[in-house]
Amino acid sequence: MLPDRHKVRRILIRAVNWIGDAVMTTPALGLIREHYPEAEITLLANPPVAEVFSPHDWVDKVMVFDREGAHQGLRGRLRLASELRKRSFDMVIILPNSFDSALVPWLAGIPVRLGKSSDGRSLLLTGRYSQDETPPHRHEVQYYRNLVRHFGITGVDVLPRLCTTPAEDAAAEALLAKGGIPAGACVLAVNPGATYGSAKRWYPDRFADVARRLAAEWQARIVIFGSPGEAGIAADIEQRLGGDCLNMAGKTTVRELMALIKRSNFMVTNDSGPMHIAAAFDVPLVAIFGPTDHTGTAPYTVKAAIVRKGVACAPCKLRECPTDHRCMTAVTADDVVAAALALTQQPPQS
User: Fold this and answer.
1) CA dihedral (31, 128, 136, 12) positive or negative
2) CATH of region 5-150, choose from 3.40.50.2000, 1.10.150.130, 3.40.50.11260, 2.40.50.100
3) How far apart are CA 206 and CA 197, in angstroms?
4) CA atoms of 276 and 281, how far apart (whole Å)
5) What are the φ and ψ backbone dihedral angles of 306, each rounded to 5 degrees?
6) What family is this protein classified in (predicted)?
7) Within the chain, where are the H helices?
8) What is the CATH number assigned to the segment(s) 166-343?
9) Is-contact 21 140, C-beta < 8 A?
10) How close are the terminal C-alpha atoms of the chain, in Å?
11) Nearest 5°: CA angle at 174, between 173 and 177?
């Protein structure tokens, strides 16, 4: 049973740990914000996810959970619990399913602790949500909405949402201009990486082919995105394009990446965090899916086309392919170009 909403002054939300998943939780955050308009909402998140929400319209404060530093190990968790206890939270909503994510709020003595009853953590929660109460084959956005609605947190359904500041938007324009892309130019974003594992990654030569063809069709400038660990993939594409692109892989913060994606006119991407960022900013996109289940993690927007092949072993949800990667090799550059042009209602060129 929830306390009276007018008595809830401070709410902690334990964020999920991946950027793409975090974007998919934002509609649930919107429900919490609407239901508790006067409460101070604090998000507890790892450093990359914390950056996504710094700032965000539905979050008042962000606390960083640094599992590799100050909050590492048992001593670090006790330190984090002590930090939370000092904030005097009335309630915590725990979005991840791990035991650890429920243990720390319990150690902090937060009186109302709401989350999914999984991973042996039911005794740590005062309010429990069962997976059985969610229909199968639901999207992750709906799962998180259902979780918070189960606890009587109601409001109007909203789409995933991210926020940038005017200063960040201006800085993104400056970065593009420094790379030779003038204000007002059509920007084609290419995101060839995927942090979860190599099985989710389509091929650099095919990304380059698609980028070259679409850029010619739309008189667009190509910008390649990626993490520092994906710089090699981006460099391969850059080489295949003869340098006719702006390679930003490994050169941006999370906030800079968000603002640059927001500025883009179209994205071609694997199933990844940047894919969800683009969807949240209403950027049209084509997403290539192979080993992951598009029914649960597709970009939550009408401005997206999914390209995938119905091979027998997909979705396997494995990080690395144990066979011949047929779910990705079957997807051709022609498939992706056709999907992009259909989404923008342009006929493919022969």
Assistant:
1) positive
2) 3.40.50.2000
3) 18
4) 9
5) -100, 130
6) Belongs to the glycosyltransferase 9 family.
7) 19-35, 47-52, 73-87, 99-107, 140-150, 166-178, 204-218, 231-240, 254-263, 273-280, 294-297, 326-329, 333-343
8) 3.40.50.2000
9) yes
10) 62
11) 85
Please say whether the beta carbons of 250 and 226 come within 8 A: yes
Q: State the Cα–Cα distance between residues 272 and 200, nearest whole angstrom.
A: 8
- Decide: 65 and 80 in contact? Cβ < 8 Å: yes
Structure tokens at 289: 């899916």
5-150 and 166-343 agree in CATH topology? yes
pLDDT in tens, the chain (350 residues): 677 787 899 999 999 999 999 999 999 999 999 999 999 999 999 999 999 999 999 999 999 999 999 999 999 999 999 999 999 999 999 999 999 999 999 999 999 999 999 889 999 999 999 866 556 668 999 999 999 999 999 999 999 999 999 999 999 999 999 999 999 999 999 999 887 778 889 999 999 999 999 999 999 999 999 999 999 999 999 999 999 999 999 999 999 999 999 999 999 999 999 999 999 999 999 999 988 889 999 999 999 999 999 888 888 888 888 888 889 999 999 999 999 999 998 654 43
C-alpha–C-alpha distance, residues 168 and 162, integer Å: 13
CA distances from 203 to 199, 225, 243, 284, 332 (A): 11, 15, 18, 21, 10
Please check whether residue 269 is in contact with residue 191, taking contact to mean a CB–CB distance below 8 angstroms.
Answer: yes
